[in-house]
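INFO batch 0412 | record 1 of 1 | parsing
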Amino acid sequence: MAGFDTALVLGLVVGPFLSLLVGLVTKASWSGAVKGLLLAALSALDGFIVAWEQAAGAGDVFDWRTALLVAVGAFIAAQSVHEAIWKPTGATDAVQSVLVRDKVDLAA
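INFO prediction complete | emitting tokens
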């Protein structure tokens, strides 16, 4: 496995912003479990893309360990930044209402 390169660093830098992406494409009323699973899937996709790009650029075979390492790192970074920065500053609530909104209950 090669040392750190641009793809690896970029894959881990993307991690903290994945939680905001989850907020953009989900409704506020969805459970935390669904949002967590989506975050895990996006982290896995991030890891796969990084490992694939690194292997393709070096002419090597795909390394699943790199994909797993980046996926876990991206997930931990996304969850940590969400709890420490995005949620307390209100960024999570702000992006939650941008693309996908809950329907307003007109009967209430």
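INFO post-check: The CA atoms of residues 12 and 75 lie 9 Å apart.
INFO record closed
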